[in-house]
Amino acid sequence: MSSWLPSFPYGPPAEGYWAPVTSTLNWCEEDYYATPYAAEIVNTLTNLLFVYLAYTGIVSCRKHGHDTIFVVAFFGYLLVGIGSFLFHATLKSCDDETDPMQLVDELSMIYTTCLMCYAVFSYSKTRQFAIILGISLVSLAVCITLYYHYLQNPVFHQTVYALLTVVMLARSMYVMEFSLRPSLKMSEEQYKLQRKRSMTADEKVTSRFEDRRDARILKLMWAMIACGLFTFLSGFALWSLDNEYCSTFRRWRRHLGLPWGILLEGHGWW
Question: How far apart are CA 265 and CA 189, in angstroms?
C-alpha cells in the first residue's frame, strides 16, 4: 500500500525533552518519533479537539442560560483535555512530584464525572439534598485521589471511572423516563380532561405545539445517549485492540508511513 501512497517514513523512537518516561502507562504510539517536545504527538494533539468542544460547551451554556453546574462541568472537560494533552506530551507518572501529569489527566476525569453525577442526582431535589450530595461527592473524590496516589494502579482508576460513568448514565435515563416523560403525559391529560373546555383555540394550538416539541426533545435526548454509548464503546474497543495488537499496529504504521499511519493510532482517536 505504501508503494503508491505519497508518504514519508516514521522517525526512530528517541529520548525527548521530558525523558525519562516515568508514567505507569505507556500507550501504543511510539515515543518522540516526531518531535523531542511531545512523547506521543498524536495522543497529544487530538486532545485539542477536547479543549475546543469544552470551550464551545461553555459558550453555549452561557448563551442559553443553562444552570451553572453545566458550565462547571464543561470547565471540568476543559481540564481533562488540557491534562491529557500535558500527560501524553510528557508521560510523567503519579509519583513524579515535579511533574505529575498522569494525575492531572486521570483525576480530572474522575472529578468531571463527579460533577455530572451531581447535576443528574440533584435534579428537582431540595437545596438541603443538593448540599449533602455535593459534600458526599467531594468526599468521594478526595478519597479516590488519596487512595489512587497511594496505590498507583491504573486498573483502580479505570474501574472507578467506569462505575461512576455507569451510575451517571443510569440516573440520566431514570430522570428522563420517570421524571420528564410522566410529567409531559400528565400535562397532556390535564389539557384533555381538565382544561379542554376552558382553553381557547389559541391555547389549544399552543399546547399541541408544546407537546410535540417536548416529544421531539425526548427523542433527541435518547438519540444523544445512543450516540454517546456507541462512541464510548467504540473507544473502548479501539483501546482494547491497541493494547492487544500493539506490535502489529506499529508494524502497519511504519509500512504505511506518515501521515497515513496516524489513522491507526487507536488511543489517539478515542
Answer: 53
The per-residue pLDDT for range 162-209, each reduced to its tens digit, is: 999 999 999 988 888 777 675 555 555 555 555 545 667 776 777 777
Handedness of CA 33, 34, 36, 38 (dihedral sign): negative
| SS3 (DSSP) at 8 | strand
- The cell for 242 is 491497541
Distance CA 235, CA 267 (A): 8
Rounded CA-CA distance 258/8 in Å is: 5
Query: What is the reported pTM?
Result: 0.78
Helices and strands counted in the chain (H then E): 10, 0
Q: How far apart are CA 143 and CA 185, in angstroms?
A: 42
Q: What is the pLDDT of residues 106-149, one digit of tens each?
A: 898 999 999 999 989 998 889 999 999 999 999 999 999 999 88
**Sign, CA torsion 248/251/256/258:** positive
Phi and psi (nearest 5°) for 178? -105, -5
